[in-house]
Amino acid sequence: MNETTTSGWTVLDTAHAALRTVVRGLSDQDLARPTPCSEWNVAQVVQHAAGDQLAFASSITGEPGPGFNPFEPSGTLDGSPADLLEPCLTACAAAWATVDRDATEVAVPVPPGSLKPGTGAGAAALDAAVHAWDIAVATARPSPLAPELAGPLLAVARQIVEPLRQYGAYAAALGHTGDISVHALLCYLGRDPGWTA
Fold this sequence. Notes:
Elements: H1 10-24, H2 42-61, H3 81-96, E1 106-107, E2 114-115, H4 117-138, H5 147-165, H6 181-188
Antiparallel strand pairs: 1-2
Helix pairs in contact: 1-3, 1-4, 2-3, 2-4, 4-5, 5-6
Protein name: TIGR03086 family protein
GO molecular function: metal ion binding
Domain Mycothiol-dependent maleylpyruvate isomerase metal-binding: 13-136
């Protein structure tokens, strides 16, 4: 059994575990299912999520990033979804394991191009976790977003998401009621917590 590479950043390792779990459970039939990302099916969300994690790694290491545009995923996978995702998660975790928590900033592939280390790790985690949710609800599986993960991710989202909306990375925020952190996070990211295929 292969040992999973971890970053040492709890929020990122938790998000990676969530994404890894939902992707490992995908069947061939799942790949064409619609997702909350209205223009993408499950296969495309997997490609996008994998590419984004590799982009976070590349920003830190200077090594090559994804060989495709994560915002234009083809939906055609060469091998299983896990075969595509796992090397990207491993590279991302290994890169973040080298980041000094006391550094002033770390390079990231999102505006403004660098963030405080904790916020940067949270940004990578946000991307992984929300796409884990997308895939889970698209395939009628339980949400991988627990309040203990969603709370810290919402704090990060409030710091980084607004500039990304203009690029289409996130839809406009939705109104929500109550203090349930999972719902608050999803609505802030423009996702309907009650979405079903």
